[in-house]
Structure formats: C-alpha cells, structure tokens
Amino acid sequence: MDPKGYGALRPYVVPATLEELSGPVTGAVKLPRHIDWGPERAYLLDQITDIRLLYMRVIRESATPDDLRQFLNATILRKVWHELVLPPRVRSLWHERFPELQRRAA
C-alpha cells in the first residue's frame, strides 16, 4: 500500500475562484449523502464548531465544483481556513490555487 494513503491518491475538487463560493451564511445546512453519509443532522451557521465541521466535510468530500459553490461561502472560508483539519494534499491543492489562504494562516 502507498505509504501516503488514500488521501494522497483520491481526487479532490477545488473551485476556479473563491468568489464563486456563494453558499449560505446564516441558518441551518443539511448536506446531501454523497458529501455527509453520517447520521442526518443540520449544521448551524451561527455555531463555529458546526461551521468548521461543515466546511471540512464539504472540502474533503465534494464531487463537483457545484457542491463547493452551493455549501461554501468565500467570506466564511477565509475566516475559518486556518482552523480546518484537512488532509495535507487538500490543503496543498487549495494553497496552490489560492495563495492568499496560506498567507492569511501564516
């Protein structure tokens, strides 16, 4: 088995621009099964722990850029990016496309 594991091999989706991420900023969000196959639950956008969980799941599990656009919001993403626990390859792909995210965390 590859020592880097599945996370180093699987495809990840990255949007073309951060500005296209125009998902919700208030209320509750329920993710579709292809993104969140755990127990059904709503992520409350007024609770930082829910925001972090939602963003980590969407970034790791989205199958298309449409998933990212529907559930992520650029302003929120910029605020929580440095708090998200993501596979190294995912973080690297996003930093390659959006160096500003890396600079903000530094």
Architecture overview:
This protein has 106 residues and is mainly alpha-helical. The chain has one domain. It has helices spanning 48-61, 65-71, 74-80, 88-97, 99-105; strands spanning 28-29, 43-44. The protein has a two-stranded antiparallel ribbon. Helix 4 (88-97) packs across helix 5 (99-105). The chain starts with 27 loop residues before the first strand and ends with a helix. The model has no long low-confidence stretch (mean pLDDT 90).
Name the descriptors.
42% helix, 4% strand, globular, mainly alpha, 2 strands, 5 helices, two-stranded antiparallel ribbon, single chain, 106 residues
Tally of domains: 1
What composes the largest sheet?
2 strands, antiparallel
Low-confidence stretches: none
CA-atom Rg in angstroms: 13 Å
List how many beta strands DSSP finds: 2
Numbering strands along the chain, what is their spatial order in the largest sheet? Answer: 1-2
Number of helices: 5
Q: What is the structural class?
A: mainly alpha
Average pLDDT value? Answer: 90
**Assembly category:** single chain
Which series of helices and strands comes N to C? Answer: EEHHHHH
